[in-house]
Design goal:
CATH topology of the largest domain: Sufe protein. Chain: A
CATH class of the largest domain: Alpha Beta
Number of strands: 10
Helix content: 25-40%
CATH architecture of the largest domain: Alpha-Beta Complex
Order of helices and strands: HHEHEEEHEHHEHHHEEEEHHH
Radius of gyration: 26 Å
Strand content: 15-25%
Distance between the termini: 83 Å
Length: 264
């Protein structure tokens, strides 16, 4: 073998060994895609608008920007926590009520990292495919998981007893393909002939009174929000109480539970 050929062979083998080393040592994109990273307070604080909303909850940082429009409250309820530690608002939405297990499960899809200095389990976090992938599949089953998809098709109705003002809640739930596909909830009153003469969902004066004491929440947003949460979560236990609307929450969940008791 001449000197030139020998030099070329050595160069080729050296390049090949370097390439093998790089491939072996450096993680592939697939391997690093699911890994979360450390996020400083300054970086968290830079995502403080509705266009880029990050929140820290119990040491973990979530990018909830895409969920603001889906959240069952005025956007301001979420955006006031953008860019800062938000555990306080997570564990107490008002009147000491925490978010539900269904809401907690949704967080997996928005995880982006952990706050610097937070006491978190890095080994558990740095598993591939966090969020809606493998890590989510391993989370404990919730009431939402247990209840969804187990109803008989049909329409289910429940009605509460009239209160001191003569109004009462009603709910009608439609199930198709063993899942809830439609919900209607309102508070009504009837005249002596049994004809409905009042619907709280259409009472603008009531909405204005509620708005003044609740920071913007009214039945105009609350009723549809509770309806949509029941459709999405599949069980009354998956519905989150909206701060400022806990009375409506109790009435809604109670009637939903009663209506669905015959749907199993």
């Amino acid at each position: 073998m001449n000197k030139f050929a020998y030099s070329a062979l050595v160069a080729f083998v050296s390049s090949l060994l370097t390439l093998i080393t790089i491939v072996w040592v450096v993680p592939t994109v697939a391997e690093t895609e699911g890994k979360v990273r450390e996020i400083s307070l300054d970086e968290l604080a830079s995502h403080n608008t509705a266009d880029s909303c990050w929140k820290e909850i119990e040491g973990l940082v979530y990018d909830v920007t895409d969920f603001i429009d889906r959240h069952p409250t005025p956007a301001s309820v979420m955006t006031e926590w953008c860019g800062r530690p938000s555990t306080e608002g997570w564990v107490d939405k008002g009147n000491g009520r925490p978010h539900s297990a269904g809401a907690e499960a949704l967080l997996d899809d928005f995880l982006v990292g952990y706050l610097a200095g937070a006491d978190v389990d890095l080994d558990a976090l740095n598993q591939p495919a966090t969020g809606s992938g493998a890590a989510s599949a391993e989370r404990p089953a919730t009431a939402v998981d247990a209840g969804a998809g187990r109803y008989r098709d049909g329409s289910y109705y429940a009605e509460a007893e009239p209160g001191s003002r003569g109004t009462f809640g009603i709910i009608e739930i439609t199930v198709k393909g063993n899942r809830i596909v439609g919900v209607y909830y309102d508070e009504l009153s009837r005249d002596e002939d049994g004809t409905v003469n009042y619907r709280k969902s259409a009472d603008m004066n009531y909405a204005e009174r509620w708005r003044r004491v609740s920071g913007g929440v009214t039945q105009l947003s609350t009723y549809p929000a509770y309806e949509q949460m029941l459709i999405e979560q599949g069980v009354p236990e998956g519905v989150d109480a909206i701060s400022g609307a806990t009375g409506a929450y109790d009435a809604f969940v109670g009637l939903a539970t009663e209506a669905l008791s015959t749907a199993r």
